[in-house]
Amino acid sequence: MNKHRFKSLTVCLDMYGCPNRCKHCWIGHSPNGNLTKEDLINVAKLFRPYTDSLTIYDWYREPDYHDNYKELWDLSHQLSDINQEHFELISVYRIVRDKEYVKWLSSLGLKSAQLTLFGTEEKTDLYTGRKHAYIDILNAIEILLDHHISPRIQVFVNKDNLDNLTQLEKVLNGLDLEKRCQAFKGEYAFFIHQGSCDGENEKNYAIRLTPNDIKKIPQKFLSDAMRYQRKKSVEELFGKTEAVLYDELKNDASTCSFVSDNPVFYIDQNWNVYPNVASIEPIWKLGNLKKDGIEKVLESYQESKSVAQNIRLNTPLSRIVQEEGNPMGEKLFEKEDYIELISNRYCRKFLL
Ligand code: SF4
């Protein structure tokens, strides 16, 4: 009997990385890898003894990025106990370069796909970190509609792209997406938010929205987002100011365990393992599969040995907030995102 047993285990291997370098990327940037099918098979073999319900993914950044995406999809299914469906996340990079891709997505029964905009061309290319990203997205929308897959539009907003949103609204109105999806009984969806404040997006702290910025967001974006995100108010969409959150949390003595019976692990191209909690960075590292071995990695997870897990388990939130928070802060956050931001800042101080 293994010491470490889990009800289920999900393991995601970053085999090839991502064509983009988004400025909001919560996972964080790292070089692209070039792992092999044997690597994926070996990862499955390593985790297999620890659960009766294993799910293997060949990516945690851009899905289907590599040319052998169909083969990797089949292989991931063979290595898994659960027959997973394709997420709404797709490779925009591939869909405009590979005619077979959308047919394949359709054959899997995909009904909607997420596309991320930061404004029109200049802002979307800048924030996606790739020239022609905007044009690719517009082309991807048409390809998806032609194959009766509904676009799900996600808009990231900050102080820097606010002035570009009216122009984006005109573009989206011109595309008439809601009606075109209805024509094939599809369901269009629209989301707007700032994203969490970890990974690359932590660097955008200075340009997070403050309450006065909300009125600059097109009214239609706000009403559509409230409808699709099922929020009752703008406050629910964008959260509270840092000052309000500071006040709510400054006496909060709670601590937090991230240990679960159904963990998800991210493995980078250098075999470092992280829990799927926050960005891929040293404070969350559980160990290295090659150097430390699987037993040590799982022990590190279950005994909360990573720097961040250990601190969150043993340090009251009040102390973290009082050290890292700004009691006068006007920037807007969802509560969980704010806790993540100040906790990551606090934990980094303890990294040896
Ligand atoms: S947010 Fe997604 S698409 Fe953008 S860099 Fe990160 S993993 Fe790639």
Distance between the termini: 35 Å
| Domains, number | 2
Number of strands: 10
Give the biggest beta sheet.
5 strands, mixed
Average predicted local confidence, pLDDT: 96
Computed over alpha carbons, the radius of gyration is: 21 Å
Overall 3D shape? globular
Total of helices: 15
Query: What portion of residues is helical?
Result: 25-40%
Task: Please give a structural write-up.
The protein is α/β, with parallel strands linked by helices. It folds into two domains: 1-84 and 262-316, no CATH class; 86-238, no CATH class. Helix content is 39%, strand content 12%. It has helices at 37-47, 69-79, 92-95, 99-107, 121-128, 133-146, 165-175, 177-182, 219-228, 234-238, 242-249, 294-302, 307-314, 317-324, 335-348; strands at residues 9-13, 54-57, 112-117, 150-156, 189-193, 240-241, 264-267, 272-275, 287-288, 332-333. Helix 1 (37-47) runs parallel beside helix 2 (69-79) and helix 14 crosses helix 15 (335-348). The longest helix is centred in the middle third of the chain and has 14 residues, at 133-146. The model has no long low-confidence stretch (mean pLDDT 96). The structure holds iron/sulfur cluster.
Reconstruct the topology from this structure.
Blueprint: E1 9-13, H1 37-47, E2 54-57, H2 69-79, H3 92-95, H4 99-107, E3 112-117, H5 121-128, H6 133-146, E4 150-156, H7 165-175, H8 177-182, E5 189-193, H9 219-228, H10 234-238, E6 240-241, H11 242-249, E7 264-267, E8 272-275, E9 287-288, H12 294-302, H13 307-314, H14 317-324, E10 332-333, H15 335-348
Parallel strand pairs: 1-2, 1-7, 3-4, 4-5
Antiparallel strand pairs: 6-10, 7-8, 8-9
Bound molecules: iron/sulfur cluster.
Iron/sulfur cluster binds at residues 18, 20-22, 25, 27, 61-62.
